[in-house]
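#data-curation
PF: Archiving a pair of folding outputs for the training set. Convention for this channel: one message per protein, sequence first, structure tokens after, nothing in between. First:
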Amino acid sequence: MKQAWPYGVLIGILSGVWIFVIQKTGGRYSVGFLGISWMEYLSVFIPFLGLYFGIAHYKNTLPNRQISFFRAFVQGFMILLVGGVLAGLATAILLQYERQPYMEEYIGRCAGALLVGILLNLAVSLWFMNKPKNL
């Protein structure tokens, strides 16, 4: 778990800042493909980079740099858990101080972010796992 903290905090802080930037610049009102703005598409890079560097760092601390899919997936999940809690706090603060008539929209976006995070974790874990010997 101690390996997950720095990268989870990085994801949480960057996501929280990005949420405020999107809100203040009006980026969520510029509708793009599937009703999602280009700024929201760019936010996918935040968890990807945090997962990539976090799991790579964790793999480098292991003996012989051997990591299984499950171990990488659990490490990535812990990173996303820390980052998600911090990003959730940033969203809660935003909703407290800004008048938001569409709270359901934010909840839907959070569910979408959870799905994207799990899919990115799956992809990065597959990327870093060592080749299994017996399948």
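PF: Second:
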Amino acid sequence: MSTAIETAVAPVTFTIGAVKELVKLKDQQELNDDFGLRIGVEGGGCSGMSYVLGFDQPKDGDQVFYIDGIKVYMHKAHGLYLAGMQIDFQDGLNARGFTFNNPNAASTCGCGTSFSV
């Protein structure tokens, strides 16, 4: 039993590169339709908080968003830290992976996955 809340206004956006990579990853993992992309934060990391990004099933208290055709799960409390954030995917010679452009972050560390507010 899930208590997910559906809403139309997503707190984050994806670039075209991020959407392509997320669709590819979900297809490679052969996940069923119950799985969506979990976006959130957790304590830890160099700067105090770290981003959570991975496929998961819904949990109690999740909000459900559909962003560019991707089902996204996010706990309501995490929206405070992530509102306005853009997620990108870099596939260059010097860097490869997801990047987070978070206007709420007061500082970030060199790894790019840890921030403080």
